[in-house]
């Protein structure tokens, strides 16, 4: 696994997220997209099986963005992976664009599902994983959730179902950036300090990692496996990662980039 290649993709993705957030001239979900960048780059460089020229390849791995407001984290990965073009990417949040604020299923563009209302992506992933088992297919299903999203009861119904069905082809990823929505730190809403223990008690194989450490992420994806158990990777991340005035600042959950803020963020990135 080429760590440097993943890091280069991460840097490009962060720049692209800022570029299109500024050019669309609208508020965008920036903080939560930046927290997921290193996870997405690791997936698209070193983990997922896909063909950028044949997005409907039957044996491709499936990626479900349950945390739909993190769409820019997905779109920038699809851009850098060669699945969508710069021309398509630049239309984000413009009238008639296929790249809306929350993803709409579009297989030709590498978007496997429609997501926005939280708490449903894992159930969708279970259906796809179960179908793969019944068809004796080897592809895997990756479902990306937010930590705040895991307050939803439907998520825990799905967690219980997946272990009961022994779906070891299902991998959940939780972007645990410590915040949810535009409110307060997650712990002030629901305390998830024993998050991993909860998943484990529901029969899952739990791997807890630094969500910005490429080696830890890669090892969790490829080595942390238990037969007949679905896997969850709890990735501890920093909301707004890569831009100092956005890091752990929930004002940037959904906000508009001014010219001054955009230029300041770019200056920081050039210095990295």
Concise summary:
The chain has 272 residues and is an alpha/beta fold.
Describe the structure.
- It is built from ten helices and five strands.
- It is α/β, with parallel strands linked by helices and 272 residues long.
- It has a single domain (3-271), classed as Thiamin diphosphate (ThDP)-binding fold, Pyr/PP domains (Rossmann fold).
- The radius of gyration is 17 Å and the shape is globular.
- The two termini are 22 Å apart.
- The mean pLDDT is 94.
Please name the defining characteristics of this protein.
single chain, Rossmann fold, alpha/beta, 10 helices, about 270 residues, five-stranded parallel beta sheet
- Output the helix-strand order: HHHEHHHEHEHEHEH
Tell me the number of strands: 5
Instruction: State which percent range the strand residues make up.
Output: 5-15%
User: Whole-number radius of gyration?
Assistant: 17 Å
SS summary, helix count: 10
Number of domains: 1
Mean of pLDDT: 94
Q: Which runs of at least 5 residues are low in confidence (pLDDT < 50)?
A: none
CATH topology: Rossmann fold
Principal-axis shape:
globular
Helicity level, as a percent range? Answer: 25-40%
Structural class: alpha/beta
CATH C-level class: Alpha Beta
Main pleated sheet: 5 strands, parallel
The CATH homologous superfamily corresponds to Thiamin diphosphate (ThDP)-binding fold, Pyr/PP domains
**What would you say the CATH architecture is?**
3-Layer(aba) Sandwich
Distance between the termini: 22 Å
Which sequence of strands runs across the widest sheet?
Answer: 1-2-3-5-4
């Amino acid at each position: 696994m080429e760590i440097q290649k993943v890091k280069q993709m991460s840097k490009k993705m962060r720049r692209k997220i800022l570029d299109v957030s500024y050019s669309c001239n609208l508020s965008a979900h920036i903080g939560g997209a930046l927290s997921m960048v290193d996870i997405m780059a690791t997936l698209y460089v070193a983990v997922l099986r896909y063909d950028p020229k044949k997005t409907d390849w039957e044996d491709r791995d499936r990626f479900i963005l349950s945390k739909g407001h993190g769409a820019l984290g997905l779109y920038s990965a699809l851009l850098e992976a060669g699945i969508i073009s710069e021309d398509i990417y630049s239309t984000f949040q413009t009238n008639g664009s296929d790249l809306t604020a929350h993803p709409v299923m579009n297989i030709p563009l590498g978007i496997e599902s429609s997501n926005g209302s939280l708490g449903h992506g894992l159930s969708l992933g279970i259906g796809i994983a179960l179908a793969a088992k019944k068809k004796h297919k080897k592809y895997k299903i990756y479902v990306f959730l937010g930590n705040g999203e895991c307050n939803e009861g439907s998520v825990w119904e799905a967690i219980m179902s997946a272990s009961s069905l022994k779906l070891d082809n299902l991998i959940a990823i939780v972007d645990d950036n410590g915040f949810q929505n535009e409110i307060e730190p997650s712990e002030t809403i629901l305390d998830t300090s024993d998050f991993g223990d909860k998943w484990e008690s529901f029969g899952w194989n739990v791997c807890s990692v630094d969500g910005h450490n490429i080696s830890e992420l890669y090892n969790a994806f490829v080595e942390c496996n238990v037969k007949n158990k679905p896997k969850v990777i709890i990735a501890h991340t920093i909301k707004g990662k890569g831009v100092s005035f956005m890091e752990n600042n929930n004002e940037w959950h959904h906000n508009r980039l001014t010219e001054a803020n955009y230029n300041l963020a770019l200056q920081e990135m050039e210095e990295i």
